[in-house]
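[SOLVED] Need 3D model of a two-part complex

Original post:
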Amino acid sequence: MIRFRLHTLFLLSGLLLPCIALAQTPLVIEAALDRQVVAPLLEAFTRSHPEIELDYRDRSTLEVDRQAQRAPAPDVVISSAMPWQMARVNDGLAQPLESKQARDWPAWAKWRDEVFGFTFEPIVTVYRLELARHMLPPTTHAALYRLLVTQKRLLQGRITTYSPTRSGVGYTLFQQDARYSPRFWDLVAAMGAADVELEDSTQDMLDGLSDGKYWIGYNLLGSYALRWVQTHPELIVQVPKDYALVMMRMAFIHRDAPHPEAAKTFLNFLLGSEGQRILAGRTPLFSILADVMGPYTAQRLRDQVGERLYPIPIDASLLAFVDAQRRDAFLARWNREIRILEP
Amino acid sequence: MITINGTLKFRLALWLLIAVGGLGVFLLIEAYTSAQRAADRAFDSQLEAAQLTIAEAIQWQDGQPVVEIPAAAFQILATNQQERVFYAVIDAAGQEVTGNLKGFVQPAWRKKAKQHPVWLTIPQDDVAIRLHGRELDSAGWESQEPVQIWVGHTLSGRQALASQLFERSLTRFLLMVLLASLLMLLAIKSALRPIRRLRHLLRRRDADDIRPLHAQVPAELFDLAETLNSLFARQRESRDALLRLTADASHQLKTPLAGLQSTSELALQSTNPQEWYQALETVHESAARTSRLANQLLSLARLRHASAQTLESLDLGTTLRDCVMEWAERDIAQHHDLGLAPLPSTPVRIKAEPWAIREMIGNLIDNALRHTPRGSEITLGLDRGTDEVALFIEDNGPGVSEAMLDRLHHPFERAGRQDTLGSGLGLAIVDSIARRHEGVLRVQRSTTSGLRVSVSLSLSGLNEK
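Solution:
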């Protein structure tokens, strides 16, 4: 979960203030996407559409999901909790976007032309430099498991990951991990034996890593981590070499959007070449479009880390993750496995 | 006058259009419903498959059904059309164990699903969804309660598939219509070819060529060709008759003219004024006869070739009485007993040309007077039937032979006698007038051995009974 950051809000409202004076149409965006990360995009949008008054509300994924089901409805809903986004669209809370940008959007990154995955964020492992002084840093899931088993004493209390109960993104990632390999549960058991600390958000894990509280962070959002390590040289970002999950933020226009035209304008900007260029050039969110150039594109990421990127597919199978019983069963197993090696 | 009443091509095309249209509506309705059915079948089997997948995942644990919904079930439900998906696993108590239907499944549906699998298409919010429910018996350690699985999805895939199938049928149908029209055009062309051939044949003929047609025609045109041939035959007859009349007329005129010439030549050779006077008398008499002959020829020609004039309603009784009265006063009738049989008390109305009827009666009387010996009785009268009236004239003269009776109305026929004063045109004129009024001329022996000539004419509707 991405926590609300007050100072960022003040900074940005200061930036946006001149535009707000001119603004006429309000546009309410409920987003589980760090404002600081996406700021260049919002600024560019406000510059090219001064007639729209942007009301960007940065919240946690669960809070965004709650807002989407509540009246008054927001105009645009953005969240990284892919199964929940899919569930809301399946409930009929989205309206289709009919535009060239929507039509041109790759089919694998959209559903029903109603919800669009517009980022390409690899899931990474982050470790402190001092870890390398004691052991060979893990480059694969199996290596991480081996480290946890062999260096249990040294790593005790120094590993962190998402909480599957408190974070929708974390839960989704673990579900996807479990789908790929049953050995994931060995890893969970090993993490449990190493007294893993469960955090709510990538930022919390990054903070803990920078503070030296943790040595290894598992399943962090690469977008935030890559940006963080630019100013925190003590941390290393490792894209797992066996497989790396890729998370996509999903955006849809609410069915009951009070300002549907403004919402369409925003989404078209977001999916259009200009928005994607800013995404690729000035945010670490990675554009999925093949023809967009910049440091942060899915294509460039593929070139760097090879073909082992596995995006979480945007299709109806996501709904299985929000099935109440399946979730309960998964969490029950999680709780069983994480304690299974306790003495 | 010939007016153009549409074209055959247009008529045939119209019928084709009606046939294709009627058949087309039926075919398209059929195609539409079968497309819908096919799409429903295809997508219903997806629902069934998804349901089976979910059923596979149901297990009992602690007296509760536990189901770890396979992700594949959702993909099957969503289909490649990305439908919105709905599902629910409901236990025996009617509680939703898991799912997103949230009490949408009605108790009545659940009851039905206990008996047999249920298929429903129901509106939800602003879209319709297709729902499939089935009860499943599953075994567990503590309990064996049945579980119902309900799955559903939106209908856009079905509609897309149905319209795709329908479009395909529509395309096929339109192609068929196009092909049928082309074939029909060829068929019309070939069907009309005999008519065109006949037209060419007729057009190529000379104006006075009235020989029968020799052409190959289909059975449908045989009647037309036959009628044309009989028309030609009649034309031939009437031309022959005309030629005969002209020849006869020339011959008839030549005889008195030759008489005049010889009489006047003889008189010129004489110097006796007495002989001149006699010759002049002969010339005068002969000239009068010739003049009357010419008049009759003229009137016959007029009757045969003049176009029909407007018909008037006239009372035949009055006309007959007037004519008889008029003739009785003439010199020529002084030696005969000209009489009138009792006439009907009410007017006898017919549609006719008054002058022609008077001419006809006059000719009948004149004919009778000329061909009967002095002192003969001549009686005229009317025989009124239900829808026609017969005007008759009877005499008690010598009559004619049986073989002659049928030929009497031919021009210049004088019952084999050249001695009487007649021209031989009287009955021919009567016959022409009768034909002109769609009447029939009959020549019979009279009851008193003489001749009875009658003309039947149809009564007009104005007659009161």
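Edit: The first strand of chain B starts at residue 58 and ends at 61.
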